[in-house]
Each structure stands twice: as C-alpha cells, then as structure tokens.
Amino acid sequence: MDKMVNIYIAGKQYTVPDSLTIMNAMEYAGYRHIRGCGCRAGFCGACATIYRIKGDSELRFCLACQTKVQDNMYIASLPFFPTQKQTYDIEKVKPDQTVMMELYPEIYSCIGCNACTKACPQGLPVMQYIAYAQRGEYEKCAEASFDCIACGMCSARCPAGITHPMVSLLARRLYGKYIAPESEHVDNRVDEVLRGDYDALIKELSEKPLDELKEMYNHREIEK
Amino acid sequence: MAAFEIKVDPGVYDSAMLDSIKKVEATRPSRIGAELRRMSAEEKEDVLRRFHPDYREDGFAVLRVGPNKGEKVPSELCDLLEGRSRVLGVKVDVAHPDYDTDVLIIGGGGAGASAAIEASEGGARTMIVTKLRIGDANTMMAEGGIQAADKPNDSPLIHYLDALGGGHFYNKPELLKKLVMEAPEAIQWLNKLGVMFDKDADGTMVTTHGGGTSRKRMHACADYSGAEIMRVLRDEVINRGIQIVDFTAAIELVLDDRGQCAGAVLRNMETGELRVARAKAVIIATGGAGRLHYQGFPTSNHYGATADGLILGYRAGAKLLYADTIQYHPTGVAYPEQMLGALVTEKVRSCGAQLVNVDGIAFMNPLETRDVTAASIIRECKERGKGVPTPLGSAIWLDTPMIEELGGKGTIEKRIPGMLRMYSKFGIDMRLTPILIYPTLHYQNGGLDVTDKSMTNIPGLFVAGEAAGGVHGRNRLMGNSLLDVIVFGRNAGKFASAYVPDVRLGVPTLAHVEKFQAELSAAGVKSKVESPLLLPSYTHGNPKFADTIKWGHAEL
Ligand code: SF4
Ligand code: SF4
Ligand code: FES
Known about the structure:
The structure holds 2 protein chains of 2 kinds. Chain A has 10 helices and 5 strands. By secondary structure, chain A is an alpha+beta fold. Chain A has a 5-stranded mixed beta sheet with strand order 2-1-5-3-4, with helices on one face. In chain A, strand 1 and strand 2 form a beta hairpin. Chain B folds into 2 domains: 15-35 and 330-441, Alpha-Beta Complex (Flavocytochrome C3, Chain A, domain 1); 91-325 and 445-509, FAD/NAD(P)-binding domain, CATH 3.50.50.60. Chains A and B meet through helix 1, helix 7, helix 8, helix 9 and helix 10 of A and helix 6, helix 7, helix 8, helix 9 and helix 15 of B.
C-alpha cells in the first residue's frame, strides 16, 4: 500500500498516495484538468506549478506532470501567464542586434537578479541566455535556451517584465534560418524532385506487382 | 559545459532489479560490436500474429452502423463511433453562425498549424479551433525525428520501399508517393522557418537510422524534434495573425443540404457555451487516440488524444481506413510508475542501446520495425518469462549505458538530453544504469480515408495528420509521422484554400446527426457514451470515485 501524504491544492487539504505526481494527485483528489495539462510528459509547459513546503520560506517551481507530491506541499497551478509575444515577418527580420532592440527592448532592463534561472524547471541558464540575446549572440542564446518548454515561470518571476520564452524562440528561429550553416544536400534534392527527376521512376516502382515489391523489400541493402 | 548532474535515488531499483542489472553489465562487453541477427519474414509474421495486440480478437468490436459497417475497430473506439451526439436535444442554430471563415481547422497540432500556414498563404480566411492550447498535441512530444531522403546515397524511391514494407504493403500508393517525394521540401520549408536541425559544421544534416529504415535519413533537433518544430509552427501561425480559438472543441460537423461540409458546432471547454462556425472547407487535424487506452495499455500520447475527429467525420458519413491497426511503441516507460507509458524515444536504440532480458541476453536486433519489436518484447515477457518483474508487470531493459560506451562519454547528454532529464527527475541516471521499458499505445496507423488532395468522400471535408489513414499502411515507421503532419498538413491547407473560391454553400443543417442516430436505433444499438469524448477521466484508483466518475462520463 502506498504511503499517504497531505497536500494543499490552492489551500485546500487532500490526502493522496505519495507515489503520485502532482498532476495525478489532483486527479486522485477529484479534479479534472482542462487547463494546466497537455503532454503529461514534460514537453509542453502547460502544467507550471508553484509550491511551498509548510514551514519552509522557499518558493519552488516545477512541472506538475514531472514532480512527485510531498507531505505538506502547498500547490498553486499557473496554467496561464500573460506573456508578450511580438509578431514579425521571419523573412524580413535580420539576425542582428537591432531585432531584439525593436521587438523586445525590455530585455535591456534586466537587473541581474537571476530569479528567472531559479524558477526554470528545465534547469536552463535563463538570465545568461537573456544576456546573449541582449548582445545579439543568437547562436549562444539558441543553444542555451534550446530545451525551453515555454512554461512561463521565469516570466512570472521577472521584475523587469521580460518574456523570456518568446525572446529565446526568436533567437532560435533567427539562428536556425539565418546563422546555422546551409544544407546544400537538401536544396539539391529538392531541385531534383521539382525538376521531375524521380517522377517516372516512382511511378514505375509504385506500379510493380506486389510480389516483386516484397522481393525488393526483403533483399534491400541496409546502410551500416 | 559541465556534465549534467543527477541526484541518483539509491532505492529506486529493488534488489531483484539490481541483481538483473549486474547480469546486464556482465554481458555488456561481449554485446558491444556484436551483430544482432535480423528476423526472417516468416519469423516476423509469426511473432506478430501471436503477440501483437492488433491480433487479439477480444480487443475489437464490429461496427453496426455507418460507412464502415461490418468492419472491426478497437472496442473503445467502437463505443465512441456508436456513441450519442452531444448536440442531440440541444438547441443549436446553425443558420446563424458566430464565426464565418473560409477554412476551419479543427486541431492545433503540427498538421493543423501547417495547414493553417498554407491555407492563409493561399489567400483563404483561416481559423483554428483547438480544445486545449495550440501546440498541445502529439507533435510536441515526437522525440525521434523526421525522415526525408535528401542524402546522396538515398532517394525517394528507397524511402518509398522502406515505408511500404514497414506498412506491410498496405500503404495507399498515391499518398505514400506524395509523402516521400515532398519530404525533402518539408525539411527545407521547416529550416527556412527557422527550425534548428542537428547539422555538422558544413551544414550537412546529421541523420541516423530508425527502425525499418535502410538509409540513415532521420533528421532530428536533439530529442526535442517535435517540440522544436511545433513551437516554430505555432510562432509562425501567430505571426501571420491567423485566428486561434483555443479551449474550444468541435463537437459536430455542419453539412449543407447538398451534402457539402459547411462548418462545425463548437463548445467552450470551460463554460460549456456552444457556438457555430460556418466554413467553406473544414480540415480535421485532431490527431490520435492514445487516451482511449485500447486494451488497457498505457499511452505516450498527449492529454487530448481521444480520436474526436474520427467520430465527427464518421457521423457525417466519411469513411475510415485501417482503423483496426494501432501502433504500440516498443519502448514506453514501464518503471518508475510516475512515468508509466511515457515514450522512450526510438533514438535511444538508434544510438546503440540494446533490448536485454532479465538474464542479460540481447534477445533481438533493436532496429526491427516497431510492431515486430513490440510483439517480440511482449513474447519475451509473456511466453518466455524472461521479463524483469516490476510492481506493474514485467518489463525489459533498454541498455542505455551502451550508448556512452559506443559513442563516448557525453553522447547521451548531447543526443537525448530530454530523456536524460526525464529520468533524472525520478532519481535515475540512464548513463549509469539501464532503464525498464514495455510497449505503450502510441499511434493510430489508420484514420479517415482521404485522396491525395487530403479530401474525404464528403466535399469540403479534408483530413490531415494522424487523423487520416492510408499513408502508413498498417504500421508506421519512426520519423514518418512528423513528416506526415508537415507534408499532409501543408497539402490539406493548399487544397482547401484552392477549393473554397468555387464553393457555394447551401442551407446548413445537422440532419446527418439525426439520421445517424436513427440508424443506431434501427440497428438496436444503445449508445454507452456521449461522443466525441474530448478528454479522458482519471482518478488513479481513488476508491471514493469508483462509482461516481467513469471512463467517458458524459458531463464535463
Ligand atoms: S526558460 Fe522560462 S519558459 Fe522556458 S522552460 Fe525555463 S522557466 Fe519555462
Ligand atoms: S528575472 Fe528578469 S531581471 Fe531578473 S535576471 Fe532574470 S531576466 Fe533579469
Ligand atoms: S503537461 Fe506538458 S509539461 Fe506537464
């Protein structure tokens, strides 16, 4: 039998098995998620959660689907946070510092408190990637922020009102589109296909009798 | 960068598991570099027939009404297809719509977002409705990668043959042709939108094998491939100002008096308010069905994967194809139970981890197709009794420390950081100890039947992504679903926007819903649930709810 623990969902007490995640414990308690639940696997950032253990002054930040309950846990869900997403035309922006200055000027008001980094359930160096963004170092910003799941907890903590996940998303798109080396082999293959190089061949292949296709499949060469 | 630090929980594996780990470690040196035999066509046939869940008669029921009457589908899906409409007995004024658009897209995952971008590019007024948030979808969770034949030693023809054999030769040729021929362009399109693919310094894409591929054509963005693609697509949809109505489910399609698709009835997930959207074309992009938990399997799918689009389409008269074929991903988390059913990406095997039984024996080549691998794991546990006992059943080791031995220290952190992080949260360092897996309900191979223009037999009703069937035959290869959502999402968006200028809508109606209900009654079917399901219900064994909340309970 599981050990039972007491948790407090928005201040109300429930007794739940200690083997459950916060997300599952809420369901055990009778809640049915509409907001605050997406992938249930740590990828989507829907289940941002703030908690405090009774008697402990430290506020903690986590994903409800990735965190086990503990005794005396006071839980607040943060399914939505009003972040600022600026719109832009990816074809028209340039991967230099001016983009950030125009779209997200508030990043230059960072006071270096590091509250964002402490809140990040993915363990990302959030303050650092904002610094990279300030300097237009998009490759570094992209790499440091790559595992961001846009849960918004950093933004909820930021005294400067910065919307970190949107800033880093812009940096990553700039990097992916403009800065990362181009893939010639992809462009070449696209040209070949558009030129019709494979049209007759694929038609012929798709019209082969089933037995022949099976034969080909079972004896195809497999790259080591 | 300093290596990722993990606080290992010494109590996470019990003593029997630890003993078995010792055996795994003992055989590891001899397994490294050893070539594991591939199964013959006959051996594959045999293990599938005897152990794949698709072959379990008691998991299926025969449809009694509708376009696929007489065909078998998973029992849970059958209950929903034969379920009671949520608009019956409710006053819905379809003649006075709350929204009016050209292309209505139901679902905000990879296919829906790709469709929206192309439909708006084609000049159509476009709107997305999604019952959760845009991006809450299986696309977000696809870890492994995306296939495309763009390397010099590869070609769309080889890709075609791989996918055809993987699908047991049931793939619809016109769809498969499109999938492989447009794959390189899909990669190029995503790259131009700013998706960060793994590349070498000279720009060559890093590509690996997946189960059933004969060339290394799996492109990836670390092990966040789907997440990276989805967040870029979402950003692009928002940048383009495409209307998104979130936390709103489509609960029924609207047809017109000429049988054309003419919109949908929508329901606010939080307030229950009903609204009507009028549209000249509708694209169903509602994804899969993992949350129906066929045969009691856990699932890797996101919270909203309840096959809603299949129910809407079927009730309106659209045909299903291969709805009886389900993909069980061979490697779902079997332990610890907090992560039960979560996906352990196939990339773990592409990177070199072997499947090892309780005695430390690698019992199969880890790169067989998914269905064969899943069936073989079930056989190893059920028939041969060589599974590792866990509190929830028996499981198989995935020998992850091999990856570091093969690729060098740091390979796991570099190539599968998401996996490393997921396990670390529960006190397991997969670089040091192997992990326990068992098949998990992963993908709906079939779906609504479409042409190569992504249209169903109902004029104006399009389907894209996992909700459509045919392209993967009866079994999908890793990396072909991310490709599918991009290629066919775009395809549906393009053809839907090209279709709308000539459409003249007649009088909107829900008569088809009543007609379907009449057929149910005539066939003596008593609906067990209201459908579409919209969301699953879980109470995790709380005895207090045993009688009050049941699977598929009608009221939100
Ligand atoms: S960087 Fe911010 S939004 Fe991204 S995962 Fe960390 S806390 Fe969440
Ligand atoms: S929380 Fe805001 S102000 Fe503080 S370090 Fe982070 S970005 Fe700067
Ligand atoms: S539900 Fe997606 S991260 Fe928790």
